[in-house]
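Subgroup meeting minutes
Present: P.N., E.W., G.H.
Scribe: E.W.

1. P.N. recapped why we're keeping a running log of single-chain structure predictions: easier to compare across weeks, and new members can see raw inputs and outputs side by side.
2. G.H. added today's entry (162 aa).
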Amino acid sequence: MSSESGPGMQDGAAPADGVALRSLLVGGMPLLVASVTDHGRGPLLLDALAAADLPVLPGFLGAELPRGARVGFQLDGRELRLVDEREDALLRAARSGLDEGWVEAALRLKGTMLVVLRGGHPDPELAPRALASTVDSRARDGDARGAIVGVLQERTSLPLVF
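Output recorded in log:
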């Protein structure tokens, strides 16, 4: 039901990198949770997301996530990239580490719920309900940002030859 992109910006990165991802479906809706520590690239990602207007969430359970953040995801055959409005990559993760149900739903809906948690990484084996409760608790403490953001699949094209 869920999948991890190990701590770091891509699968298998060193834990000191400061970013971990979990992709899953919640009630049939795609959710990507990134947790960020104060180490490695974590603080840089938080600063970039604040600059891109990813809002601080007052809560998660029973709340509607806002829209309008100036970030989105691009997905190709190899990786998922979180990009800003200039298409600069803020975060990269191997596609192989993503939950296939999440990929299908995010592409079908052309979007996903994105939540970024500050602090330690939740247990990767945490059940979806317990993860949602953790997200809600961190949001109520002011340690979560999030929004509904777009997901686009990049298509590879062959060069035209005349």
